[in-house]
Amino acid sequence: MGAMESQDTLLAVEGLSKTFQTGAGDVHALKDVSFSIPRGSVVGLVGESGSGKTTLGRCLLRLVEPSGGAVRFDGTDLLALGSAEMKRMRKRMQIIFQDPFSSLNPRMRVRDIIGEALVTHGIGKSRTERRDLTAGLLEEVGLKADHLSRFPHEFSGGQRQRIGIARALAVEPEFIVADEAVSALDVSVQAQILNLMQDLRERRSLTILFIAHDLSVVEYLCEEIVVLYLGRVVESGTARKLYAEPAHPYTRALLSAAPVADPDAVRNRQVLKGEIPSPLSPPSGCVFRTRCSFADEACAMQVPGPVVLSEHQTSHCLKAGSI
Amino acid sequence: MADTTSMPMEASLAKVLVQRRAVILGLVILAVFGAAAILAPVITPFEPAAMSVRNRLTAPNATWWLGTDEFGRDIFTRLIYAGRVSLLVGGGVAIISSLIGIALGLAGGFFRRLDGPVSRVIDAMMAFPDILLAISLVAALGGSLINVVLALSIVYAPRIARVVRASTLVIRELAYVEAARALGVATWRILVHHLLRNMVSPIIVQATFIFAYAMLAEAGLSFLGVGIDPETPTWGTMINTGRQYIDTAGWMILFPGISITLCVLALQLVGDGLRDALDPRISKEL
Questions:
Q1: Which helix (H) or strand (E) holds A31?
Q2: A12, A26, B118, B255: which one has the fewest Cβ atoms less than 10 Å from its Cβ?
Q3: Residue B3 lies in a domain
């Protein structure tokens, strides 16, 4: 990932691990995950259910406490911060959630939901100033100022997601984790929210980690992509390169599973066999080998490290470049 | 819902409650007892402790509406003064046990480290029979109105704590709590505004039932002679003394008995109604 580091990096994840202790044993939700996010870019984090995408997003904001590694935000290791310092840092990084229904407190009015962010960080001196700020935020996300005194249940899913976005924007963050921010919405609404995020990103020069399982959504929004499988990074690189020439067999399978809006397109489908293995007992060596059509004995013996294919692409596959 | 004044959940709740006759009945009974307790000196010309030895054990008549007891004290007067105590105990216990239960339940549900100890304490307290635990607490603290309220609050607090803990475990995982944490909202604020505010309904329902249980338990304690000092008229002590005259002056236990039954029944009706109204799955069918 030499190309990424040479740019101005806003967020660098280094060897991040998260282990959950369960009755059945330790679950390695994330293992030795490293990647970086250049300032002002939108990075897509993709992978199927159970790959650890959501846990990773939570770990970056310390909503879930990582077990090891480092998260450097603008040069500061977040994991080393005390709670007061971390609170100040939270002003700079926010999250948008997948489910627009559980992400808003049903007993709070919109002005209090957004106002809480302002009060917490001492933005706006008086009640009226905060009210004006909140109204401005609502208009920025495409709602009306007279929605302020309503309760969440009076809004549609898309409108609720806009409120969630306004809440995240209230503290004027530089970095936003969008955790499957459009997956729960209707397709037509998805497009509206994606357009809104695109607008906001340009207007506020945001850096975004966009977590998704829908590759067509990621292609629309992201410049770089990190592919996660069973808590490990399997491939990363620029979106253009990854979509054109996916190097890792898992990325190829993901891409071939994405629908293409052209009935005449020649499809060379690679269907994944079986389910994602249990993170309780991951396969030895390369964790993808149990579902990989190229796997041989070597894949069971050795954990693949990053193979830099070009300045735009890194694959974690022993056979990278030869398959 | 097009205008800016939105209808909070509470408004629809009131509507659902009023539609149920049983709830209305319960509220009316409680209102009558409440009014009688508050207006006691206005309603009755007698003093609760005023004796009239010549008229002892008089059957109900125009002067003594519900008869007199073994010292010639007016049963009706004693009944409404005893109602004050009962409502005070019930209300006090409902409030204090709710406060204790909320604190325990939030602590156990929200802070993982406290969950083990708090849950064990709750389990241990719930394993005791209510009245036995109340008797030993009153015996240890000494019998007075405040001590009875305290003892019963401790006895019933685990019921609230269990409800609060269960709700906390669910709400804690919801995205709006996570959003508040991501914003750096103070923990106490998260507990009050995001957790407690969303479990007000189950707490109110439980508190209503505790109100009824506490009135019954207070009567039980007084009946057993370990309650509030015997000078203060309570429904329990009235039944206890009336027991000795059951074959000659049945009214002595009949009216306090009816009072307890009515009050507890009314509270249960209101509690049931609240529970149904607050459960979206049931309230739709009404």
A1: strand A25-38
A2: A26
A3: no
